[in-house]
Design brief:
Layout (H helix, E strand, L loop, with lengths): L4 E4 L6 E7 L2 E6 L5 E5 L4 E3 L4 E3 L4 E3 H12 L6 H4 L2 H11 L10 H16 L9 H8 L1
Antiparallel strand pairs: 1-2, 1-5, 2-3, 3-4, 6-7
Length: 139
């Protein structure tokens, strides 16, 4: 599911991949539904390709979002209510205790929590790829 959700550098929010054109992608803003092109020179990354550094290796973003959902019982996260940078890091440590504190910045954590809230608002609640789907694709 997260493979078709995109982040585009320089543009706020998240986008859903609608179609591909010549030298561009047609994307739809998740929050507004407005469709725009994303050209080859734009830095576009799929949320399915992002992972979080931990002390044991990398954890896919979908798994981290599932842990956030479990910690909040599926509710949105009020980032401002958490507090300052230290409080945000402490909160994230309750969700992913083994995250690499040297390579994961506070801004990364805030962005991840913001993305989580955007996805929830858009009705997207399944973040991790299911094992059956992964096996079906490989066969």
């Amino acid at each position: 599911m997260l493979k078709t959700i995109l982040s585009i550098a320089g543009r706020p929010g998240l986008f859903r991949l609608v179609n591909r054109g010549k030298n561009m992608l047609i994307v739809e803003a998740i929050a507004t539904g407005k469709r725009t092109p994303a050209y080859a020179h734009d830095k576009v990354i799929s949320l399915g390709d992002i992972s979080i550094y931990t002390n044991e290796g990398d954890v896919p973003l979908g798994d981290v979002l599932e842990k956030v959902k479990a910690a909040t019982n599926g509710a949105a996260v009020d980032i401002k209510a958490i507090g300052d940078d230290r409080a945000v890091r402490d909160y994230f440590e309750t969700i992913l205790p083994t995250y690499d504190q040297d390579r994961v910045y506070t801004t990364d954590i805030k962005k991840l929590l913001t993305w989580y809230n955007l996805l929830l608002a858009a009705g997207i609640t399944e973040f991790a790829e299911k094992e059956e789907e992964a096996e079906a694709v490989t066969e």
